[in-house]
Amino acid sequence: MPTNRYSIGAMTLHWLIAIAVIVDWRLADAAEHAPRGQHFAVLQPHFALGMAILVLTVLRLVWRLTHRAPPFSSDLAAWERVLARTVHFVFYVLLVGLPLMAWIGTSMWNQPTDFFGLFTIPNLPFGENRGLGHELQELHGTLGEVMLYLIVLHVLGALKHHFWDKDGNLYRMLPFGTPKP
Ligand code: HEM
Ligand code: HEM
C-alpha cells in the first residue's frame, strides 16, 4: 500500500465516525422538532449514538497517535495545510468534547443513558445540578452546530480538491484510486 494514503484502520474509523455524526445530527434535529412532551424520549438514540462516537473517536485517536499520518501531497499550498490541520484538530476536540460535556450534563440531570436497550451507561460522579446541566446542553447544541459548519467546509475542501484541482486527495481516505505523492 502506498504511504501517501491513510491505513485501512484509519479509513474505516474515519467513515464510520463520519456516518455516525451525520445520523446523530439528524436524530438531534428530529428531537428538536418532536412534540414538547416527547423531546427527551426522542433524544435517547442521539445520546446513545453520541456515546458510541466517543468510543470510536478514542480508538481513532489511539490509532492516530500510534500510526504516522501520510504526508500531504507536495501540491498542497501552505495555507491549505494549515487550514486542513486546524479543522482536523478541532474535529477531534469536538468529537471528544461534545459527547463528554453532554454526558456530564445528563449526569447532572441524574439521567442515565440507555444504550439501545442493551445496557445503561452510568452517570458520571457529578452532583445533581439541573441549571448547570441545562447550560452545558445549550452550549453542546451550539458547538454541535459549529461542527456542522466545519463539516461543510471539510467536505467542500474534499470536493474542491477532487473536481477542481483533480489532485486525487480524496483517495487518501479511500481504499481505491491514486492519490498524488
Ligand atoms: C461528517 C463528518 C466528518 C468528520 C468528523 C471528518 C473528520 C476528519 C478528520 C478528523 C480527518 C483527519 C484525519 C487525520 O489526519 O487523523 C479527516 C480527513 C479526511 N476527510 Fe473527513 N470527516 C468527515 C466527513 C468527510 C467526508 C464526507 C469526506 C468526503 C467527501 C471526507 C474526506 C476526508 C479526506 C479526503 C481526508 C484526508 C485529508 C488529508 O489528509 O488529505 N471527510 N476527516
Ligand atoms: C459527537 C457526538 C455528538 C454530536 C456531534 C452531537 C451534536 C448535536 C447537535 C448538532 C445538537 C443540536 C441540534 C439542533 O439544535 O438542531 C445536539 C443537541 C443535543 N445533544 Fe448532542 N451530539 C453528540 C453527542 C451527544 C451525547 C453523547 C449526548 C448525551 C449524553 C447529547 C445530548 C444532546 C442534548 C441534550 C441536545 C439538546 C440540546 C439543546 O436543548 O439545545 N449529545 N447535539
Give the helices and strands, then pairings.
Elements: H1 8-32, H2 39-66, H3 78-108, E1 113-115, E2 119-121, H4 130-165
Antiparallel strand pairs: 1-2
Bound molecules: protoporphyrin IX containing FE (2 copies).
One protoporphyrin IX containing FE binds at residues 21, 24-25, 28-29, 32, 43, 46-47, 50-51, 53, 95, 98-99, 102-103, 106, 113, 137-138, 140-141, 144-145, 147-148.
Features:
single chain; 181 residues; mainly alpha; Fumarate Reductase Cytochrome B subunit; 2 strands; 66% helix; elongated; binds protoporphyrin IX containing FE
Order of helices and strands: HHHEEH
Q: Please state the average pLDDT score.
A: 94
Briefly note the CATH topology name: Fumarate Reductase Cytochrome B subunit
How many domains? 1
Number of strands: 2
In CATH, the architecture is: Up-down Bundle
Taking all Cα atoms into account, the compactness measure Rg is 19 Å
Could you give a quick summary of the protein structure above?
With 181 residues, the protein is mostly helical. The chain has helices at residues 8-32, 39-66, 78-108, 130-165, and strands at 113-115, 119-121. Strand 1 and strand 2 (119-121) form a beta hairpin.
Q: Any overview of this molecule?
A:
- α3 runs antiparallel to α4.
- It contains four helices and two strands, in the order αααββα.
- The chain has one domain (8-173): Fumarate Reductase Cytochrome B subunit.
- The model has no long low-confidence stretch (mean pLDDT 94).
- A hairpin with a 3-residue loop joins β1 (113-115) and β2 (119-121).
- By secondary structure, it is mainly alpha-helical.
- Bound molecules: protoporphyrin IX containing FE (HEM) (2 copies).
- One protoporphyrin IX containing FE is lined by residues 21, 24-25, 28-29, 32, 43, 46-47, 50-51, 53, 95, 98-99, 102-103, 106, 113, 137-138, 140-141, 144-145, 147-148.
